[in-house]
Amino acid sequence: MPTIVVEVMPKSELLDPAGKAVTGALTRLGKSEFSAVRIGKRFELTVDGAVTEAILAEAQQLADDMLSNSVIEDVVRVYVLEKTVLESAPA
Amino acid sequence: MPTIVVEVMPKSELLDPAGKAVTGALTRLGKSEFSAVRIGKRFELTVDGAVTEAILAEAQQLADDMLSNSVIEDVVRVYVLEKTVLESAPA
Amino acid sequence: MKVGVVTFPGSLDDRDAQRAVRRAGAEAVSLWHGSHDLEGVDAIVLPGGFSYGDYLRCGAIAARSPIMTEVIAAANAGLPVLGICNGFQILVEAHLLPGGLIRNNHGDFVCRDQRLRVENASTAWTNGFTVGQEITIPLKNAEGGFIVDAETLKRIEGEGQVAFRYLDVNPNGSLDDIAGLTNAGGNVVGLMPHPEHAIEPGFGPDTPDAMRSGTDGITFFTSVLQSALARA
Amino acid sequence: MNALVDSVATAEATPEKEQPYAALGLKADEYQSIRDILGRRPTSGELAMYSVMWSEHCSYKSSKVWLRQFGEKVSPEMTKNLMVGMGENAGVVDIGEGWAVTFKIESHNHPSYIEPFQGAATGVGGIVRDIISMGARPVAVMDALRFGAIDHPDTARVLPGVVSGISFYANCLGLPNIGGETWFDPIYQANPLVNALAVGVLRHEDLHLANAKGAGNKVVLFGARTGGDGIGGASILASDTFSAGGPTKRPAVQVGDPFAEKVLIECCLELFAGDLVKGIQDLGAAGISCATSELASNGDGGMQVSLDEVLLRDPTLTAEEILMSESQERMMAIVEPDKLEGFLAVTRKWDVETSVLGEVTETGRLIITWHGETIVDVDPRTVAVDGPVYNRPLSYPTWMDALNADSAEKFLRPSDGATLREQLLTLIGSANLADKSWVTSQYDRYVMGNTALSYPDDAGMIRVDEESGLGVALATDANGRYAYLDPYVGAQLALAEAYRNVAVTGATPVAVSDCLNFGSPENPEVMWQFSRAVEGLADGCLELGIPVTGGNVSFYNQTGDVPIHPTPVVAVMGVIDDVGRRVPSGWQDSGDNLYLLGSTHLELDGSAWAGVIHGHLGGKPPKPHLTREHDLAELLSAAAHEGLLNAAHDLSDGGLATAVVDASLRFGIGARIWLDELLERDQIDPLTALFSESGARVIVAVPREEDVKFLRLCEGRNYPVARIGVTDRGADGAGADLEVQDLFTISLKELRTASRATMVEHFGAVVGYAADLSGSGIHRAPGGGRISE
Ligand SMILES: Nc1ncnc2c1ncn2[C@@H]1O[C@H](COP(=O)(O)OP(=O)(O)O)[C@@H](O)[C@H]1O
Ligand SMILES: [Mg+2]
Question: What's the pTM?
Fold first, then answer.
């Protein structure tokens, strides 16, 4: 069944305590090539049937209204998952 | 500065209570076109300097060792973020 | 006898665990996450709390701290290690115990007096109990849902590695009502409820005898003293 | 000259430059007085500082003239144990044995409406930092909450967000939540109140005050990095109505990081213990503007700092934004130069980022530089202390007389058992009286291992000394309905109730903190309500003999033009010499005699009965009886000390009837109640006996063997006492009942179901409810031991 992916990230101007804690851990582990980490969410919505324009619009709406909190988060992307892309690593 | 994205999802065989709760909420809202929701994480690692093969390999390693727990999660994808892709919605 | 209690940044119940150790009659030694020195202790408690804010996954960052290298080695060599709540999560992240602990199925933090059944009374930390004994221990967490793949679940159930099970109500959606586990050697035990908060009359859970008089938790700490004596 | 920087030199050179003072919340005359003070136009950095520090929230400009009473209406007796009084970050009270306690309650109302989770979370974070800055270890929190109607859709957004925000932050800090309030009233619909209290303990010698003394001492900023969050928060979020939202390009919300704060607590305590700091000031509203100007004003008056040294999370921040940023989890310390190395070693140990911004001077000026230019050059007292003070006009509300004339006595008071039974069930299931486990089960009450009492007892209690058992009890209360009917009396009733809630535990009330939540001070009727409430509270404290040690004012709580009910939340702290002697609010045993202390009058105006059964709010609130409250507290403390009480529960909302229900449900032990003697003695009808909310009343359970002693104690103190029933566990297996003789019987099961259903219906399940409808229950054998070891 097709899957719609919704990506949500904390707003970049706001503190991301979780990302900060991981950045700190990386520094302690000596991995200084990564200067910052931010942690957001990735939703997979399984769609019953074909993904029409209407359903995609609905998912976008959901992403804005329910899956994210617009005061502190941004919806980064809403897209239909191409299974083939998924399996491989670096795109 | 370049960004590496790491995507992590709960293993599909295992319980994802948060995803289940969202699925339940969608059903109550009458949005039955979405039959299931799973919630994972999306990391953005900021890289100081260019993304070499070595750094990408390092990120993959981190994704496996620390950013995910292989007992309960899968690393879905590790890739370099193309800024242009990001801005637009459905890909 | 010396029992070490590790303090990680964000540990909360470290001083409470030390109090429990002292009340059980042992010496409590404070251990620091950034050190590689276990200071010759005879047993170790990884206390409750929110190490590193529990931000990545509960216990994940703490499991990768310097002291854990030593704790893992010592545990593999048979040293008794008890992980309480966040400590249990650290043990799981350190792969000293199987499975994972995730967000409670109802989504919220929950604090309640929890009844448990003792399923394994032959570990270093439970030998003062009897199998089937029902005890009440405060529980307080947001991420205590135990999950594991079906095959491992079958194995740990079969090999008696389930140490405690929830009674009356499963407060977090744990598989098989699992509240706590032991490793195959019986020296490493982890559980979500907090025995260190049921050690002193007046400050523990309610019991049928009187309010806040529950002290079932002290047996964890007296058990480890007993097993140390036995080993000596 | 750096073109991008509005330096003092630039300001002198361009006196006519237009400045956006109005958008920053300053009035024209306030802007003019800044120009007069400086003798030139302010730089944009100075304007930023003055605007946040002169905001209502930071300057108390409308409330100052009234709040003075708390310092003036005091007797020597009241201040003798006060180590630090009003005006510091938090008051400090000597509780004996070398211990001191500091506590304070503060509002985070407006941010919690915009973003309930983060707003409430950062509210807890802010009040805890106040406690740390006194040198104390925080040991508990409480939360006094008010929401709109329980069934309003927005309440379903706000309440769960607020509760999980408090739960997230305080649980992660490792502070037990020991009590609070959860109220619903449509008047708070778009203006919920989130008041958070923190309490800390310290040894006398550990007391520290935040001031910048000693020229050459270093000014050090440590904790989280400074980011763009919450800019304008102080002036725009906290002191303006939402309709008037000003221009903000930076997000107005702040994100809390309790982990960072937990580390900060341990770090600060280690700094204090190692004698490595002179003083530490928390950064709250107005951030660096506030910390620098307050530290300097409270010290030798001079300070020189460079903003270039501030560690930033967002490098694009301007100097003005850095001055105004409200990024959380930051502290500012004054450190002697030869202790700096030791200081840095401790912050490094805790992974806390630290930077030295400058030093204390003797110039009397606060000088701030940025990119090599002086952007602030002010007398710090003009920023932090000598802000504007308003004597705002008051007017007695036009609607007051009609409201007071509309008494609930007009309603029929049924006396048949069936109707009374029905009304009782309706009351205990009503939003404000219903079981609040939905909220409190999300709070850790065990952490630290010193909690002697918490939910659902009348007050929270914390052991301070593990050896002696010395402890403190705290309760918060407010009743906006009463305060609406009469703000003077309403404030006193809030004080009386919190005082009584502390007294029933066996503790002796010793100090007060308050959080005064009101509408706009620019509305003369609101200002009248405010002035009356402050007067009532100050007079009440004088009468009870306990001082106000600090608090907080929150104005502009209104939706459009409609202000909230005046809501003076009062927190009372008490001391008990051994927490092992504490008394819970519920029956612990079968066969105990139940005594009602105090007398009951026809006082149903503003009551839960009038509100819930008749949807009515009018008339005059119950009469406060503060001297009697004082006598009652002494009586309770003596009785608890002699171990004469198995339970004590105060009577408040819903009167005697809800009190006996609470006390029965606490441990699942029922009671038989008879009213005849009471009706006769107080000349009242059964409904009044059950639901009137007369003050200075408490119900106690006394074991039979202590009966004589107890009655002698009451007689000796001449306090009205009536035996009104006996506790009863019920026949084996049958479950207990609450019986009011000749009127009705209700099983505890039915009562529990009614009480629990309400929150669950609106917000969802509570873990464990389904499994234990019969009650967790103490089922102790008769004559069982006491609570203490
Ligand atoms: N938001 C809250 N946080 C913590 N405790 C709460 C909260 N709301 C209510 N409580 C607790 O619930 C119990 C009953 O509250 P309430 O009816 O307001 O008490 P009282 O009438 O004695 O003032 C008390 O123990 C109180 O501390
Ligand atoms: Mg009460």
Answer: 0.94
